[in-house]
Specification:
The protein is of the alpha+beta class and 322 residues long. It is built from 6 helices and 21 strands. A hairpin with a 5-residue loop joins strand 7 and strand 8. The longest helix has 12 residues.
Length: 322
Amino acid sequence: MQSNWPLGGLPGAMARLVLRLSSRLPSSDGWGPPRAKAFSGLVAGLFLAGTAFSQTVPAGSAPTPAEGPIVTLPKMTIVGESLKDYPLYRKNEVVPPGFSENSAPIELFYPGEAYNEGIGEGSATVGVMLDAKGNPTDFLLIRYTKRYFGEALIREAHRQQFAPRRIKGVAVPGRFDFSYRFVPTLVLQMNNFEAMEERLMEVEGGPRFVYEPHLEREIDNGGLEFTKATVAFIPDGYDAPKGKTVKVLVSFYVDEEGHARLPSVESAPSTLLVPNAIKAVQHWEFKPPTLGGKPVLVFAVWTVGFEPFVPAPSQATPAKKP
């Protein structure tokens, strides 16, 4: 995952995170109950925090993102399972997604609204879902300090070209998150109060985000609730071990309408499982998440179990009498 998400007060926030592994999986639409479990709280928080150190895209360039840090998770056991059962990919096994060599330079004008409001700077993060060829299939506004900064960046994302994620040399679908820092090119006149407020933001690490994702444990009812689910089927060519459930670890967002967005596989025993896991999660729907009764964006990390594909019995057409 790539983004620039400096999480203010991270040590305190992480201290409040509580790990919870739960399963609330009703049957839906005749697909049967998918085997999936939610790694909420600490695990999702660590994945989110692990993206805090990747680079922000500088103006006038379209670089390939710097290699992000390896996300390390503490040893822990939950309901008979351990996170060691889901080893994250090693640094040398993954080429993260990014901008292609043919991407246009990123040149964003400072929004006029920001000048009018006397805003000294701004930031935004956008997530892009890429297929195995690097073609964008979905765009999501993830965080911003002002709405117009986010809207400007997502418009820019639509005109860019991308390179897909590669795992062990194989191109796979996945999510690419990137951020942009907006800085005015004109001098802003500020009164003493505005100057003090600007200095305070600098000391605290920049302007505050007014919109950003929340963890599952933070939302009303304590977690996501399925309303529709589909099953991930074991693909052709994958020799599933007998007597053992095949599972992968997937991170994704759930938007304010309850749709699963931008899934990305974080751990899998084979790259053959990645496309089917992503297809399944993309069809998941949840009760729209809220915090204090207000719709919010949620970041989650779940395990997804695979089922063997069993074709429906064919019904022979009765022969017509001569």
